[in-house]
Amino acid sequence: AQRVTQPEKLLSVFKGAPVELKCNYSYSGSPELFWYVQYSRQRLQLLLRHISRESIKGFTADLNKGETSFHLKKPFAQEEDSAMYYCASRSVNTDKLIFGTGTRLQVFP
Amino acid sequence: KAGVTQTPRYLIKTRGQQVTLSCSPISGHRSVSWYQQTPGQGLQFLFEYFSETQRNKGNFPGRFSGRQFSNSRSEMNVSTLELGDSALYLCASSFEWGVYEQYFGPGTRLTVT
User: Fold this and answer.
1) Per-residue pLDDT for A52 more than 90?
2) Across the interface, which of B33, B41, B103 has its CB nearest the CB of A97?
């Protein structure tokens, strides 16, 4: 079954430190992968998707098919990055969007 | 463009009752998906509608149902409510199904007592 795993419920870093939010997926085909973010009192919104290969707000994510991972990275965390981050995958076969359980990122000043 | 709207925003029901939640997608969007968000299970896919047809369904019991109207507005219904149905129900719309970005609504907070 299609599954997305985010092993960390909470990640706390200081401003300026590097950040890596882990995401692993289990799917034998070629999934489409996303990172969604939810800032306090705001709606869930798309942060980035692997097919676009772009950097949004300094965040990047690389799909590693060998490790079935799609970790989210930022070299220098900012306080405004504090939010809930969800990794999600959509299979080509079913089109269902499956979310991980989320990681709360706290960036301290 | 106005964003995705969901009504009502908050709802309190008792066990055994039924409830209907409404979602209005962004104008021009034809695909609507529903998710249940709980602290324990996170975001779980309920179903997706496109052009009034259910395209996809998650692993939820038959008590959970939905529909989409010709104007793309969607409703979901939960019958015979259980305590475990207490959750935030999120609706998301996209231009079409597939690779298009989903835009989420603010959610309806359902509490079952």
Assistant:
1) no
2) B33
